[in-house]
Amino acid sequence: MVYELHGTIHQNFCQKCGRLFGLDYIMNSKGVPHCDKCGGVIKPNVVLYEEALDEDTIGRSINAIMTCDMLIIVGTSLRVYPAAGFIRYFKGRYVVVINKDNTPYDSNCDLVFNEDVVSVVKNLK
Questions:
Q1: Reported CATH class of domain 7-46
Q2: Annotated catalytic residue, options 3, 4, 5, 6
Q3: pTM of structure
Q4: Catalytic residue at 6?
Q5: Domain boundaries, the chain
Q6: Engineering a disulfide at 111: which of 18, 66, 96, 115 sits with its beta carbon 3.0 to 4.6 angstroms away?
């Protein structure tokens, strides 16, 4: 299961009227994308600095971490909170980290790939 804790650029919304837009609309816009109905600025559904994470997504993420047998952590330094602290909820058997740089949890993991995520995934067979 994948929970997009910090959102996704594949979902976008008008900050004025709330209308939803797909990535194609954004990619075909020139400059800052604006709503074709009300003229408001369209923002990707991502969490920016100083914005709060979605509480429902946090809850679902923690529940999944608490109940899974294997936790695969991909592409994060595990240094930015609150997300970095979610690993403490894991009670399963195996932890795998795939991240280009070392993390503070590498020594506690069962398998660590300190490599580029794309190259690791391409080599999975």
A1: alpha beta
A2: 6
A3: 0.76
A4: yes
A5: 7-46, 67-122
A6: 96
